C-alpha cells in the first residue's frame, strides 16, 4: 500500500463519505418508486448528477495521490462507464416509466457496483 500524507488522506476520506452518501441516495430513489411517502426522488436524482462533478474533480487528485495504485486507477477510469450510462437519461426525466426502469435496471446497479468497488480499494488507506 502506498504511504499517503495526512492532507491527502482527508481527501480520500471525504471522497469515500461522498460515495456513501450517494449510495444512500441511489437506494432512496429506487425505494421511492414503491413508497409514495418518499417524494424527493427527482430532486435527489438531480443532486446525484450534480455530485458527479465533485467526483470528477476528486478523481484528478486521487489519480495523482494514488498514481502507483493500478487498481484504484482502473476503478477511477471505470467511472466513465457510469457517466456514459447516465447520459442515456438526458431529457427523459418526465418519462416516468423509462426513469424507473432505467434507474432500477441500469443506473443504480452500475453506480452501486462501481462505488462498492472503489470504496473497497480505498478502505485500506483510511481504515487505520
Task: Please describe the topology of this protein.
Blueprint (H helix, E strand, L loop, with lengths): L5 H27 L8 H25 L4 H18 L8 H31 L2
Organism: Bacillus carboniphilus
Protein name: DUF8042 domain-containing protein
InterPro entries: DUF8042
Helix content: over 70%
By CATH reckoning, the class would read Mainly Alpha
The helix/strand series, from N terminus to C terminus, equals HHHH
Q: Based on Cα principal axes, name the global outline.
A: elongated
Strand content: under 5%
Number of domains: 1
Cα separation of the termini: 12 Å
The helix/strand class is mainly alpha
CATH fold call: Four Helix Bundle (Hemerythrin (Met), subunit A)
Low-confidence stretches: none
Main sheet: strands, sense, barrel: none
Output mean pLDDT: 90
The total count of helices amounts to 4
> How much is the radius of gyration in Å?
16 Å
Tell me which CATH architecture applies here.
Up-down Bundle
Number of separate strands: 0
Task: Walk me through what this model shows.
This protein is mainly alpha-helical and 128 residues long. It has a single domain (6-126), classed as Four Helix Bundle (Hemerythrin (Met), subunit A), CATH 1.20.120. The chain has four helices and no strands. The protein has helices at 6-32, 41-65, 70-87, 96-126. The longest helix is centred in the last third of the chain and has 31 residues, at 96-126. The chain is elongated. The mean pLDDT is 90.
